[in-house]
Amino acid sequence: MSVEDVLRPVAVAGGSLVITLVLGWLTDRALRRIDAAHPETPLWGLLRRCRIPLQVALCAALLRGSYDESGISVVREHRAGTGQALGLVLIAATAWLAVRASAAIVESSYSRYAAGARDAARVRRVRTQVTLIHRVVTAVVIIVAAASMLLTFPEMRAVGTSMLASAGLVGIVAGIAAQSTLGNLFAGLQIAFGDMVRIGDTVVVDGEWGTVEEITLTFLTVRTWDERRITMPVSYFTGKPFENWSRGGAQMTGTVLFHLDHGAPVEKMRQRLHEILQESPDWDGRSWSLVVTDTTASTIVVRALVTARDADTLWTVRCEVRERIIEWLRTEHAYALPRISTGPAPTSRGAEPPQR
User: Fold this and answer.
1) pTM of the prediction?
2) DSSP string, 275-300
3) Which of 53, 81, 306, 356 would bridge with 97, disulfide CB 3.0–4.6 Å?
């Protein structure tokens, strides 16, 4: 074995590795300087995450173009297999790079928009849209990469040709079989761009109250108030009615009902409610009221109306008002609490009450 036989593979492999490391370092250094010069956008800093897939793709491309010059006997004997293996690595690394780059662009766009936006509902809408866009892009890149890798095998090309001959029948069968999946896919896109429900929205579905935690192309996850997770297909939200408490702004109005005796001091209750709300840090100050909404033979129904900045805060305000009003009535106006009469029933005129 001559010195040239030893130095040639070292030069090919080592040269490719050195070029890869140098170009990767220069790219990372350039991105770091651009990021420091443009602090208003996080894009350049996020693109630094692409360094590893970029180096893998670059090294695979260099080796793919120069492995014939290595002079290694094993490589010469398995030239087709070596080229195919390097091609597969190159395709996979390119797909990896594309996914990382798209994630950086999407995250940067959302961060810049969220930093300058004041409407929380619009921010949640954009977040939902960019999340689903990134997942669509990722799915497309993975499918294209997988198809490209399969087409590098000669056997798969023959299979592809035969599949094209029966594409009509396969399409009909696949369409029928994947009807539910495709329906969920299009429902996910409809939710993303139709602004029906967004990540972070407070919703009520099937009698369960919670917050939308995750939206994908096929399913949606709702986190309930007691930390449970309800996962349902996104087609549910396009085919059935549901409550979205975050639509039109997060501000909400709630009520607290009291069943009291007819002698309840309504005007004093009204004043006490105002005092409680002024002391409460969760009341947003928009509106309040206290009125008698109904009456029965034994009680009256008093409704207290309060407002808050969102659904969670409204729940806190309602509980606070209910607790403090009941405590105030119990200690200072106990006669206002509902009672059950145990005296004898009134009799008709002239009739004597029954003797016992």
Assistant:
1) 0.49
2) HHHHH-TTEEEEEEEEEEEEE-SS-E
3) 53
Structure letter (DSSP) for residue 204: E
Q: In angstroms, what is the C-alpha Rg of the chain?
A: 35
184, 233 in Cβ contact below 8 A?
A: yes
C-alpha distances (whole Å) from 26 to each of 50, 161, 313 are 13, 44, 51
Backbone phi and psi for residue 290, each to the nearest 5 degrees, phi listed first = -145, 120
d(CA 176, CA 165): 19
User: Between the CA of residue 232 and those of 185, 229, 238, what are the distances in Å?
Assistant: 13, 10, 12
Q: Which two tokens stand for residue 72?
A: 């290694």
**Which amino acid does the sequence have at 167?**
A
Cβ burial of 331 (10 Å; 0-12, 13-18, 19+) is exposed
Please, what is the Cα angle at 101 between 96 and 104, to 5 degrees? 130
d(CA 123, CA 83): 48
Residues 233-292: tens digit of each pLDDT: 877 777 778 888 777 666 788 899 999 998 899 999 999 999 999 998 889 888 899 999
Q: Is the pLDDT of residue 349 over 80?
A: no
Closest to 240 in 3D by CA, of 203, 214, 274: 203
Residue of 330, 329, 331, 356 whose CA lies nearest to 344: 356
d(CA 327, CA 337): 11
